[in-house]
Amino acid sequence: MNRLAFLSPTEVAALSRHEREERVQLLVQQSHNIVSRAVERHANADGRRLVATVVLFSGGNDSTVLAHLMRQRASHAAHANTTIGLEATREFVRRSCAAWALPLLEFTPPRRMDHYENLVLDQGFPGPGHHFKMYQRLKERSLEQVRRQFVQNPYRERAVFLAGRRRTESARRASIPAVERRGSTVWVSPLVNWTRFDLSTYRLLNPDVPVNEVTDLIHMSGECLCGSFAKPGEREELAFWFPTFEAQIQELERRIADVPGIPDHRRRWGWGATLREPDRRRGASGPLCSSCDARFAPAAPAKE
């Protein structure tokens, strides 16, 4: 492939506009090729059958570009209602999918006890070390519902999940594979070699890509605001732009103020922001937590 397809973010930043546009056209082709090879190898071979191609749409910049790019290829979009996200983002996802005539699956944690409110009432607000639990309860178990909706025979049927993960997002993501199979689910990352400059160029080339005002205001999707990886000043920023979210958090803090067994530091949202950076990095993240991963320093991109 043309050398423009494999450049570091610094090299991409130095390209002319024409070169950036040429690079994005190459990356678009590469993204579709990644999906095609994944389907051919993992879903349509040896008697297996592809039953669904689901683009995971958080409402953030990466997933919006991905959903636009794959809107005619995906059979469905899926959005996690984490029970601690912003309604404005959920409305953006709904409007976008409706405009594209793309069926949307909006899922919540399957068990009421796994909703964010109940998790906090039981154990207090999460910090970095509790992030993977939040991911598992608020997203992973819910996404499993999507897989089960389509896959009846896990030995013969495959569901493809398209995720907006990029290697230049963070050190955590620097080595993610373009394709990986987990049981009957094939995870595909079509944007794996894209940089943030490529996302912006794609929008210039495609002015019909919708914009979520939430990402313009707080620079993340707002799909999940569990607070595990909250940074200094984040709560104040959220309270300024989304006072209803702040009211929700204040009410939870009031309700756990006197609950026995909850450590004092876990009685406030975003307490991990006060930790030293090495301690903040200890929490594990999941494959759908790009907003959390993006808080860590980016690494040099790896090639497919």
Structure description:
The structure is a single chain. With about 300 residues, the chain is α/β, with parallel strands linked by helices. It has one domain: HUPs (Rossmann fold), CATH 3.40.50. The protein is about 45% helix and about 10% strand. The protein contains twelve helices and six strands. The protein has helices at about 10-15, 15-45, 60-70, 85-100, 115-125, 130-150, 195-205, 215-220, 235-240, 245-255, 275-280, 290-295; strands spanning about 50-55, 75-80, 105, 155-160, 180, 185-190. The chain has a six-stranded mixed beta sheet with strand order 3-2-1-4-6-5, with helices on both faces. The longest helix has 27 residues, at about 15-45.
Short description:
With 304 residues, the chain is α/β, with parallel strands linked by helices.
